[in-house]
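can u pls check wat happens w/ 5-amino-5-deoxy-1-O-phosphono-D-mannitol
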Amino acid sequence: EKGGWSSFMAKEISEQPEAVANTLLGRSADGAVHIPELDGLDDTLRGIERIVILGCGTAAYAGMIGKYAIEKWARIPVEVDLSHEFRYREPVIDERTLVLSISQSGETMDTLMAVKYAIEAGAKTISICNTQGATIARESDAVIYTHAGPEVAVASTKALVAQVTAVYLFGLHLARLRGTLGTAEASVLLAELQAVPAKLATVLEQHAEIRELAHWMSDTRSVLFLGRHVGYPVALEGALKLKELAYIHAEGFAAGELKHGPIALIEPGQPVFVVVPSPRGADSLHPKVVSNIQEIRARGARVLAIAEAGDASVLPYADKVFTIPPASAFFEPLLAFAPLQIFAMELAAAKGLDVDQPRNLAKSVTVE
Ligand code: M6R
């Protein structure tokens, strides 16, 4: 079943380009996004005033990325909450609220209970699920299925890129309905999304190089991850993967937060992964992240950068650079997750751990 791969996780990482491509299939025509599953909801989607995205773990990080995209493209306020926090804080929701839940399994009890709570409160509900006919999908007003195929390894990989793809499609669908993006602008964004599978395939070619780094770092006790904008959830995901697979203490930060505390953690030799934004684009956060790199490097950090191919500005300060093909800001996460997934998996493997079934964890968390 692993088809020659050493683990399901390795196989599923390799299937990510297809997971994105299959999730895009049948959801656009003539350069515009159209999600047939949402037919009949046009008036509802034009009338909503805010969106609350719910999920747990990796799915919640897909939600954080979704917030940046939906707010930018569809100009609707979006809040992201962990499902298990949501219903215990008397959230302010009503019939003008859309609750968008994200779950690979569609059976996560925390998310299911949060969706039920939202339905009781009169909210509209849409779910992004990877499992056909799952409970959360059945409870929701509509479901946008991700077509990543079955994910067996406990660590979510291909489901995540499919979730980000689906949430982007949803953002573009909403922008079209609400008239918040020009036709040309929207079709450029769609074309960028459609270009992801081929680009992601080239990122995966760095597997052996990442493995080498992971093996070399197998005694590491702590790793930090930094990113900004949509790179921030990527940093959080990199840290989660390392915790759950390699049992190494890891933390992800928004790079702008460094000077508000975390920079005190930097001492000589501390490994720090940095997700570097593309240097292109008028509003690029690239200069700010490069200056963060200089700050941590000056304090002795070992900098492991994920940067756009051809970005020479990080080379003088990085101990290692993994490259991703050029893409505008929103599409970088879809390319930047893979090196971090591979790093965590290979480090766990180097420690002799079971990467498909880490200790204390279940694939589907069906208890609260
Ligand atoms: O099935 P779900 O997407 O609802 O699962 C949510 C989380 O439990 C899941 O993403 C978890 O964080 C993964 N083990 C992360 O790799």
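The longest helix spans residues 158-178.
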